[in-house]
Amino acid sequence: MPPPPRRIPAARPVGSVTRGTTNPNRLRRMDRWIAATHGAALRRCADPVAVDLGYGAAPWTAVELLTRLRAVRPDTEVVGIEIDPSRVAAAEPYARQGLTFAHGGFEVPLPAGRRPVLIRAANVLRQYDEDQVGAVWDRLRSRLAPGGLLVEGTCDEIGRRHVWVALGPDGPRTVTFAARLATLSRPSDLAERLPKALIHRNVPGEPVHSFLADFDRAWAAAAPFAPLGARQRWIRAVRSLADSGWPVTDNPTRWRQGEVTVRWAALAPGRRG
């Protein structure tokens, strides 16, 4: 009798287990930005699948991402991916048409032939060393569909302050700073939420430090607008940044949301803004 076929073990997921901290609506600012800026690509793509990578101990962020992206394209599918199998099992009761959960990591395990038009990786790389970030970015970008987007960043526990990098298959493109403006005493308060690629670069001589220092100065100069509300003061400060030469890529429609987006090249480590 021939021996039974040898079982080939499944490949080990790439990455490490995160703390798993999550809360409902934690990623609303990032989701809102994705829907506004990447919505056109989502509408025209052939296979509207998005990945919520490292969603954490509870699946709230994946559930919310599906709802927000389906407002842009109703047949969007979301796959929540977690490296901790117990978290995948805990999420299964929330699965439904268009929302599934899978065990995996930075290899982004999807069925053969499928590539995501979006990978969102929030609060995933904070525990990694800075010199590991580039390789993770490259691996995730390689999984994107043509025209796809990787959004990687960090926020506080309830999503009031958030900074993220947007990357296409070609590499990093922009950095977005977003906040509930009533919580800020000055824009550099967002420094504590810089993504791993930038957080250790907030020192004199680095572009991100220069940007935040200029933003604080613009915020101080816009103090006469404070009686009109933090939103008007923010808009005035961002306009001043753009006028002074920082490559702001968005417009007052986004600024009113408590956001500002700047070209990555101006903030990239080791380069001058």
TrEMBL record:
It comes from the Bacteria. GO terms for biological process: methylation. InterPro entries: SAM-dependent_MTases_sf. Keywords: Methyltransferase, Transferase. GO terms for molecular function: methyltransferase activity. Residues 1-24 are annotated as: Disordered. This is Class I SAM-dependent methyltransferase.
